[in-house]
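Work package 3, deliverable 3.1, input record:
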Amino acid sequence: MAFDSLSDRLQQALRKVTGRGSLTETDIETMMREVRLSLLEADVNYKVVKDFTNEVKAKALGERVLKSITPGQQVVKIVFEELKQVMGDEAEGLRFKAQGTTIFMLVGLNGHGKTTHAGKLALYCRRKYNKNPLLVAADVYRPAAIDQLVTIGKQLGIPTFEMGTSYKPEEIVKKALDYAKENKHDLVIIDTAGRFHVNEELMEELKRLKEIAQPDEILLTVDAMTGQDAVNVSQSFHDQLNVTGVILTKLDGDTRGGAALSIRRVTGVPIKFMGLGEKLDQLEIFHPERMASRILGMGDVLPLLEKAQDAINEEEAELMAKKFKNATFDYNDFLKQIKQIRKLGSLKGLLSLIPGLGSQLKNIEIDENQFNYIVAIINSMTEEERRNPDIINSSRKQRIARGSGRDISEVNRLTKQFEEMRQMMRKMMNMSPKDMERMMNNMNRPGANPASSVSYSKGKGKNKGRRAPWF
Amino acid sequence: MGLFNSIKSIFSKNKNQLTNEEQLIVEKAEKYKKGMEKTRSSMMSKLKALFESYDKINDELFDELEEIFIMADIGVNTVLELMDQIKSDVRIRNVSSMKEFQSIIIDKIFSIYVKDEIVDTNLNLNDNGLTVILFVGVNGVGKTTSIGKIAYKLKNEGKKVMLAAGDTFRAGAIDQLKIWAERVGCPCITKEPGSDPASVMYEAIQEAKKQNIDVLLCDTAGRLQTKVNLMKELEKVHRVISREVPNAPHETLLVIDATTGQNGMNQAKAFTEATKVTGIVLTKLDGTAKGGIVLAIRNELGTPIKFVTMGEKITDLEYFDIEQYIYGLFSDMFV
């Protein structure tokens, strides 16, 4: 997973420059080239990139980048702030009618997630605004599209209005509106068929549906993986229908999602939501800041959390926490934890998802075998030793080393670090909230050891500043 | 001057002077031309405008050409490589005429795709017994629809076809495949929604053997390549298929939507790692997107493109042909 983050690129570009004392305008130009390439790799539209870099350049020249000791970081900061600003500083909410039935209509290309997001939106509005939504199946073209919406409705306990595939969408929408009125639905969400923006016939149909339904929101769903064409698609839908908002879907993957910037910049339509998975509650208000960080390749913690959630069983996690607290954490638990981490995939891939860390790892070789050695050593312990680590003395260590085929020094290191870990856990569990907060703050400082500057209420903390090799 | 001239000579011949083979090429090209009309018209209007406004080959012209390639989603790395080659060719051969310049551009795209290999777009079919083709890809790219179209094509080629509904997750996916099977007129093996997809494949293979089926097309649920568990599930599907039929799956086709940007590369890498992808189906080429990422994938990973789809009708599918693809993009230049 190559996260060619912008700061990484800029550092590379600047390497050629450093040693000359001060930066020139040409150096800024070099940096702008990197900004440009980085944005293009994130799928930001070519023209948008051009304008955007010109603006950033003007800002960079105006600000103190030239004199700054860390010009690379300065530029990253300017780009980041600018990105955030273009994508909308604050999230825009949904528009509801004060009285009567509010109507939303979902439009977009095939396969960009309209049907799924009709369901997600219905659930969201029911939960957040206490609405009584009705889903309307107006996609009569794609095989089984109606079944899909009906199934989603059933899963959510939200009724779906459908008339099969033999009626025209216009007819279906008209009937659905009557039905909503009769059955006191205060929100109607219309799922339309996917279509290309260049398909005139189908675009005319959408215009007629708009005329009939008079929707309060026309939401365009756009796949976050969309490339340069995102601009054509969104512009064309917007020109013909006056789109009121965008839902950016499939952001749970590793796409950098430059389409978000292009769409906002070219159409001015706000991005209102992000779709973050196939489950129907995975819909969130759009976060410009997170999006900016993604576009710049600086990572997004979200996929990491998602991965962890997939792999780690909640009950087990709770059990672990209890063991931490009582300091009954033993080698068996440690083994379990290692297995869970391994389930997440390669260590390098995992670490690269952590914002700010990804780029630094590129040239570091991580010995994935380290895990295997540790597992081998633990496996060579007796059941008694694993449950009761304190009994491991030097003759036992020698036996363990022979059994696992590792050097005695490795066994020593493991037992020592395991002991340190247990101590640290105990301390953390006994910390006051204030100490905890201080530790968290320290964690965010690069290179800081989380536990080293905390005043412990118990123990002496004799192993300050040392880290286990596998972390 | 390779490709450019050979295509040009075919197209400039009188229709009744053509050999059968050439006639086929022309027919196919016309179909491509029609399907890619939208793609081509936007690309061509740009290229034409570009060449009209320049009478000399200079840096500005190169910049604009670069823009056209980037806008086609070919991707920064491949575009830079392409531009380097074009520039060095222009310099070495001291090219000054616009006509010659255009043909260099086309030849370079061609060679980036062909890479001095014979690219076989035909499917690897098992002539003595069952062929299994597995379809994989992210959500919403058109896997199920592509299966319907390929099934129809194979059936028309005289094969006995069967479908396996391995997308047991998405609401309505099984019904969608069933409807396609009805349209094609072929059997479709399904299980309850939520069943283990590998078990669907197992049953479908047993049934296919019983019924002497030639080609079994296996649908799978769309999944983002970052979902570890889902990719593991796909590995299992792949494993079960190869256990039940020797050398199967004979093809694993990754379906990619033409609107996809640079993430297409990540998709190709991850799915290849999990299921040894042997080819690409490029879908939705009837919009304005060019699907250039497949050129980058071919350039970096070597994966060939087998099919393109450009429309919603059951017949809107063609075997991929790089000459036709380039022709579709630049065809006004051949006139």
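Chain B touches chain A through 48 residues (CB under 8 Å).
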